[in-house]
Specification:
With 287 residues, the chain is α+β, with helices and mostly antiparallel strands. It contains 4 helices and 9 strands, in the order E-H-E-E-E-H-E-E-E-E-E-H-H. Among the domains are: 79 residues, no CATH class; 114 residues, no CATH class. Strands 5-6-7-8-9 form a 5-stranded antiparallel β-sheet, covered by helices on one side. The chain has a two-stranded antiparallel sheet with strand order 1-2.
Length: 287
Amino acid sequence: MPTVRHNHCFAPGCRTGYSRVKGVPKTSIFNVPQDEARRKQWEKNLHRGDKKLQDKCAVCELLIEPHFVIREYIHTIDRKEACIPRGRPTLSEDAVLTILPNLPAYLSKRTPKPRNKRKVKQEDQTTSSKKIRTTADAPSTENEPNGQSRPKDAETFCASEGTQGTASSDEVRENSNFLLHLKAPECWTKHCFPNLDGVLYCTSTLCEEATVVSEKVLIFFRNTPHVAHSKVSMRGRLVAEEFFSSQDEAERLLQIADAFDLCVGALNGADYPHIFFDNRNQESAEA
């Protein structure tokens, strides 16, 4: 004969499902697990020594924590969750009995609170346009030159290749006014030319016969594809091409160029009194 499920709760002291109990809220009744191992665990949690929990027994929802009771069908439509109420609630596969309302409180041992479900990410057209902040956008904490310690990355000008920036040329042109107002180190001057889509910064030296020589030149270009870049020249020789994408990076390049040490060149005897030379150095200077 087929097994008929009980219509009352098996838990000790619980009156759910009994016909003579009137005036109490209606609660759902669930089957016990058919798996013997799980049923043994439920039986242990019920603390009922007079009877064994059989497969035809039933328990009510008062013994089960709410997150184990499934009351809705959940469907994902166009990356959005749609919830439809169930006709009859059911239990999750990991449901256990932890609440015994009619027994001493120390016998009820609740499970750890589950984590909230992660919401399904919805597609947003603005997501792709958001800029990702990189380490290059962060302001530098290095000491500035002009009497202070030299930046550690001054040696980057010895290389001929730079690191590509993240901003496009259109973005740089739209916000290129900052190139005209960079905080330049002492003795650096700014120049704009009709045939240059950018700004030139340089240091100059006054030589004999009132001639002016630019020793360090840093040109910031704005019309380059994909990224904005700069060229660094020392005494007429191109030493590096560096990329930049913000005002902080451009000012940083100026600081590094200012801290770069130039070679003083060969000794010129005409610039020093003869008392500083011995016979050997005097002959070398005159040669």
